[in-house]
Design a protein that fits this description.
The structure is a homodimer of 343-residue chains. Chain A has 14 helices and 12 strands. In chain A, the strands form 3 sheets. Chain A has a 6-stranded parallel sheet, with helices on both faces. A 4-stranded parallel sheet of chain A has the order 7-6-8-9, sandwiched between helices. Chain A has a two-stranded antiparallel ribbon with strand order 10-12. In chain A, β3, α8 and β4 form a beta-alpha-beta unit. The N terminus of chain A is likely disordered. At the A-B interface, α4, α5, α6, β2 and α7 of A face α4, α5, α6, β2 and α7 of B. The first copy, chain A, binds a DNA duplex (30 and 30 nucleotides) through α2 and α4.
DNA sequence: TTCTCTACTGTGAACGCTCACAGACAGCAT
DNA sequence: ATGCTGTCTGTGAGCGTTCACAGTAGAGAA
């Protein structure tokens, strides 16, 4: 492990230096670097020794220039970072994607583009070919970044169906509507009839679809839709708490709350406790996500599990396929009702 | 804004296409792209028009190949991501760095390298020249990544003085020891004499230095050092709570706690409340950081403010200077005692 | 005029790599 | 002998850019 380069910052060794050191040609070194096919054991060994001796690392710019690939993937976040960091789901998703890509030896770059200015910079960076594809984690409609990247022909996979974008963009999503239906039916099965709902933002697919599932089941069961039982949050804990306050004021007779995220559900629990309503005695509370917040809550949340491990794995699979030339695809994954103490 | 490239994914336009379209040479286009000096107004206009018409974006791989720069900076995190996401300080730091770099139009790439495997991948990625420099946010000693990057000659600036690394690595840090001294003196000025301490991990500079400041002041005041008054945490809220439990068991007569981070201090408050000790009546609690946790706590925390905005600005400044060829530098920034309700 | 200076422009080299191709050599059948 | 495989190797070209250099034209000074 003799580094000939310690101390002064000399220019790093090139493939040529390695070739000379090993007594072979550039081509042979390149072949060793890319899988080692059609290389004799002798040459293979000599090249590896030369690489160790010179401390060579391939210049990825040169490689990318000719291959057109960068062998890295971007994890793009177009929302303010607070949102991201507070939400345990994002965490799980990020880790899942990192792991799935690790199997392909591809590094994941996290890019935050919360401000308009940042969005411009990052978009330019991406369209300039610095990553081969983008995993997009932002669900707000009318996201100009997604639009732009799509038009620039950058392979893109969104988490959750992007609203307002054409059908040519890939996405992976949980079956939000079905999940919501399961939860509402579960609450009904407990004898609840005045079921309130705290939705997500209505410009996100999760916000829209989960509310739709709620309304569908109510309609099917002949229960009248009462808009006093419906408020919207922004997936944050605080907004759940505030939402529950409003619900208690508008519809004090509620006997259940279906909350569109576990984090918001935590806030709802706080508000209910303060109001002296027992859970699950007086009010049943159902969450959504099955994130770590569901287990941290007291009582633990009955919730709809989103298969985040599968979601991230699928996102990576679809993205790599698209980079490989396949057409965009949409993947919908089933959810599951998890019964715990809150309902 | 006519994109000649919509639909089929043709190969993107090169600088050559732009030159032909504008009726000038490659050189002139390149000059326009890089500041526009020594270019006639006529040519300048023609090139800009051609760029718009062709939808040209510079191929950064080609540029990087010859300039040796990538015009991007990495924000490297070598700890498990949970730690990072829970701590509000990191958030502030990240945003500060992003903003400081935005002034130079440089995108920031967040790289998570929590596992051994990821560390290898990311190190290779960095040493291959994909970023011009690295902002390192990990303070644990013996971090092999920092060592490796340093040896590879990658410009690097750490947040907090890296333990166990040579003096040739740049860092920006708050005056931890002075801050701790200020806090302990403040607690003494309130008449407290049995001052306990919850330190950070003792393989981090913050952990070591803040404890050192505590011991110094005690020694100066002729107060005996009692190791029952000292426990260590890992900067997490939970570890603060657990630490306080241990302290209460070992030294029930404590009348103040100096906690090495606000997040841990929140945990300490929880434990004290459960034990029926009033804050600040029975026990004074001092934090460290002045993070958002200090304001969120009840009572609000008296704490030592770390100037995170200046820290991030300095990190970026030092890193860019180093990339520009300057020698590594160490910057120590002063802290400030912020008095609130807890002490 | 002629010379110098400045503003501007075009033209080969690189940068370090991969890829396609051609060639060499061995083994085995014809 | 000849041909055909298959494995292995070296070479030249080219990816899209910047940079150094040489050159042109016009303005102003001698």
């Amino acid at each position: 492990m003799t580094m000939s380069n310690t101390g002064g910052r000399r220019k790093p060794p090139t493939i040529h230096d390695v070739a000379r050191e090993a007594g072979v040609s550039r081509g042979t070194v390149s072949r060793v670097l890319n899988g080692g096919h059609y290389v004799s054991p002798t040459a293979h060994e000599a090249v590896n020794a030369a690489i160790r001796k010179t401390g060579y690392v391939v210049n990825r710019h040169a490689r990318s220039l000719i291959t057109g690939r960068s062998d890295s993937i971007g994890f793009l976040l177009t929302e303010p970072q607070e949102r991201f960091f507070e939400d345990p789901n994002f965490n799980v998703l990020l880790r899942g994607c990192t792991q799935a890509l690790a199997a392909h030896d591809i590094p994941l770059l996290l890019m935050l583009a919360g401000t308009e200015d940042e969005r411009r910079r990052i978009t330019r960076y991406i369209t300039a070919g610095h990553v081969d594809g983008v995993l997009l984690v932002s669900s707000h409609s009318g996201d100009p970044v997604a639009q732009e990247l799509c038009e620039a022909g950058v392979p893109l996979v969104a988490c959750g169906k992007p609203i307002g974008l054409g059908s040519k963009v890939s996405y992976v999503a949980a079956a939000d509507r079905d999940g919501a239906r399961d939860m509402v039916r579960h609450l009904l099965s407990l004898g609840r009839r005045r079921i309130a709902v705290v939705t997500g933002p209505l410009d996100t697919p999760g916000g829209v679809e989960r509310l739709a599932g709620y309304r569908e089941v109510l309609a099917e069961e002949g229960i009248e839709y009462d808009e006093r039982l419906v408020v919207s949050g922004d997936y944050s804990r605080a907004s759940g708490e505030a939402g529950a306050e409003r619900l208690l004021a508008q519809a004090p007779d509620l006997d259940a709350v279906f909350v569109a995220s576990d984090l918001m559900a935590q806030g709802v629990l706080t508000a209910l406790e303060r109001a002296g309503r027992g859970v699950p005695g007086d009010v049943s509370v159902g969450g959504f996500d099955d994130s770590s917040a569901a287990l941290a809550a007291r009582p633990q949340l009955t919730t709809i599990r989103q298969p985040y491990d599968r979601i991230s794995a699928e996102m990576v699979r679809v993205l790599l396929a698209q980079i490989g030339g396949e057409d965009p695809a949409a993947v919908i994954l089933p959810t599951e009702l998890i019964k715990r103490g809150s309902a």
